[in-house]
Structure formats: C-alpha cells, structure tokens
Amino acid sequence: MIPFWPIPTFAAVTRRGVALRNEEERVTKSKTKPISARALYAIKLRGVAEYQAGGETWWFYRRDLGDGRTLWLQSMLAGNLRISTGPTGGMSFDQNWCFHDHDAAWRAAVGWNGHGDPEGWYKHINTGRRRPNGDPAKEYVAW
Known about the structure:
Blueprint: E1 13-14, E2 18-19, H1 23-29, H2 37-52, E3 61-64, E4 69-75, E5 81-87, E6 95-99, H3 102-111, E7 123-124, E8 129-130, E9 140-141
Antiparallel strand pairs: 1-2, 3-4, 4-5, 5-6, 6-7, 7-8, 8-9
C-alpha cells in the first residue's frame, strides 16, 4: 500500500533529523528571479480579481513550469497561502509548500524556476519538513 504522504527514507534524513535530499543540488538549482514591487502588485491584483470573479478559478495564480507541471498559488485556512505543483492538465498535486508571508508566497509563485524548493515557505506538507519563519538553517522534520 502506498502511503498518502511520501515518507522520507533513512538516506534522505541527515544531521539533526533534517530531510535533505541532495542538499547541494536543491540549493543550487532553486532560483527565484527578482521581480519589481510594481510588477508584483499588478500580478496580485489580476489574480485576486480573477479569483473573486468566481467561475472555475479556485487559485490566485497559475503558471505552467514548462516541464509538464503546473504551479498554483491558493489560499489556505487562517489566511496563509500555499504553492502546489502537479501535472499539467491534471487536478492533483505532487508537492505543496505553505507560507505565512503573503509577499514571499507571491514572489515564489511568480519568480521560482520550479526546481528544488521555493524560498520563504514554513511547511512542506509532503515530507513533514518545517522551516520556522522560512529560515532554511532551522529546517527540521516534524514527523
């Protein structure tokens, strides 16, 4: 039976219980391109307007990553935001990152290249990894 959430293997868990699969690769490949405050504000306005217009839009922002995956930025309970990735054309998610900081979530959704982890998240739902205040140095596994 396949577990609902992927459980990190022993090889994936390293010093201090932190799940670091190919740490060097994740750090070097994960890039978030800079975006101006004005451009980010315009993207936010457009996304929130589409969301509030109703219809089939249940996300604030959606973008094709170019490798067969799509990125969605969606709202969560308690006012947090979540970035999810999944197969293009599908309605399932393979990775989910939660954000307390809305600005960090929007910047990651718009500028992240889709490799490794986006910047600024506090919880990775699929692996149980947590980063207090989005700080990678304080990452630990919660389960």
